[in-house]
Amino acid sequence: MREENYVDILKQHLKTSTTCWDHPKMTELYQVLADLNNIKFSAYRTAMKLRRVQKALRLDLLRLVSVVDVFREQDLQHGEHVMDVVEMIHALTGLYERLEEERRAIVVNIPLCVDMCLNWLLNVYDSGRNGKMRVLSFKTGLVSLCNADVQEKYKYLFRQVSGPGGLTDQRYLSMLLYEAIQIPRQLGEVAAFGGSNVEPSVRSCFRMAPGKPAIEVSHFLEWMSLEPQSVVWLAVLQRVAVAESAKHQAKCYICKQCPIKGFRYRSLKQFNVDICQTCFLTGRTTKGKKQLQYPIMEYYTPTTSGEKMRDFAKTLKNKFRSKQYFSKHPQRGYLPVQSVLEAESSET
């Protein structure tokens, strides 16, 4: 009965409203996400917003193997098949029932989780509220936010657009990257990742296999390991999740937090200058204190003695390098695919 009632409500909204309807709890969640807009770095701002979405939808508890099993049970094998709302609800109900079975110690409000997750998926892939979505869209959204190592997510997503020989061509890779970029687009963050035009990203990926009309999963994984601009937020999301439980035996140079929790940032140009994630990501400074100098090392797990020695040696070496050296060797945390202006001019 709950599924029928939800479908009736959704259909009524489709008929009577030209605006997108959100579940009250989803509206609350989006209001909370606005608190993260003071984060200066787009990839981290996006990843931290998605981490909150992931937790609110309980997708952080869903293992990839369970998600894939439910996809198989629901016969969601053809990426270009178009699902309707009833099919989506059946699949999501199966996912959360599986979660309840596997995590008996955790209370799972299945109706609420299904409603919230359906709401989010429709916002990302069906903003016009037609009540339709491709299987590839459905899978990309859920796999991106489920609980799995990011490499396993990459492999699974690549398989969804590869042929019998395990190869994919530019057209199918474009489809996958287009589905992926819809996730930050829904948060209003798409410009920082190259816009909705994915062709430069496809060309960038195919440079891993020069002259070939199709690529293997190894080429795709090699490209993704460089954290390309258009999908860097997915790798950062994993680091955000891991960093949540990290404690570093160091004091923040700005706010004096000790131990530092979450991400820790250390200058490899200055000795003993550590900054916590809040101060670094929001650009907080203290009057009379020097700003953190690049290059900077990010830690999302506690450091070992070997890593400390390595960083000391790097800092010592950097002390004798000039500003001109660092201007010629800029530090980037991602593989640039295109400029934002290029994205805007070529976006369709």
TrEMBL record:
Q: Where is this protein localized, as stated in its record? A: Cell membrane
MF annotations from Gene Ontology: zinc ion binding
Keywords annotated in UniProt: Cell membrane, Membrane, Metal-binding, Zinc, Zinc-finger
* Membrane protein topology class: Peripheral membrane protein
- Coiled coil start-end: none
Instruction: Return the PROSITE patterns for the record.
Output: ZF_ZZ_1, ZF_ZZ_2
Cellular component terms (Gene Ontology): plasma membrane; synapse
Going by the entry's taxonomy, the superkingdom of the source organism is recorded as Eukaryota
The record's annotation in InterPro entries points to: EF-hand-dom_pair (IPR011992), EF-hand_dom_typ1 (IPR015153), EF-hand_dom_typ2 (IPR015154), KCMF1/Dystrophin (IPR050774), Znf_ZZ (IPR000433), Znf_ZZ_sf (IPR043145)
| GO annotation, biological process | synaptic signaling
Q: Which residues form the ZZ-type domain?
A: 247-304
Where does it mainly reside?
A: membrane
Is Zinc included in the keywords of this UniProt record? yes
State the name under which the record lists this protein.
Dystrophin related protein 2
